[in-house]
Structure formats: C-alpha cells, structure tokens
Design goal:
With 81 residues, the protein is mainly α. Helix content is 40%, strand content 0%. It has helices at 2-17, 47-50, 63-74. Helix 1 runs parallel beside helix 3 (63-74).
C-alpha cells in the first residue's frame, strides 16, 4: 500500500512539474493523512450513525484516493474559484 502511495505522489509531482508556475505547486504533506483507519469520536460510534454509512464494500476509501481527491479539489485549473 505504501508503494502505491509513493507512486501516486510521484505521479502528482511530475504532473505539477509540467507547469512550473507558482500557482501550480503541490503542497503535499510529508506524512500522508490516514483515511483508511479513521478513529471516530465515541459519540459517532452508534447504530444510528453507522447505519448512514453508504460506502460500498467494494469501493472503500483509500489514502491514495483521498490524496488524489484533495489535489484535484485544490487544483486551480479545475476549480471555479
């Protein structure tokens, strides 16, 4: 899994390097956030809250997917504002 994260980070870096303008520099954290093993607050671990989770079993959140989503969300070429 770490190897895939490094590959994605390398890909995103190379992608950003194609345009070296200051507005296109990726500001990735040194240590990626862990979206696969979130520790939920005690008040959110209830049957009522867990029943609202609509994440498909065959498409779980991954650290790589979350990183890609963050990069795309903040990409000024894709963002309207």
């Amino acid at each position: 899994m770490l190897e895939r994260a490094v590959d994605l980070r390398t890909f995103l870096f190379v992608l950003a390097s194609a345009d070296d303008s200051a507005s296109n520099i990726l500001n990735l954290p040194e240590t990626p956030d862990d979206y696969e093993n979130i520790i939920w607050p005690e008040h959110l671990i209830t049957d009522e809250v867990l029943a609202t989770d609509n994440t498909p079993d065959d498409n779980l959140a991954t650290n790589e997917g979350a990183l890609l989503g963050r990069v795309l969300f903040y990409d000024q070429k894709l963002s309207a504002n």
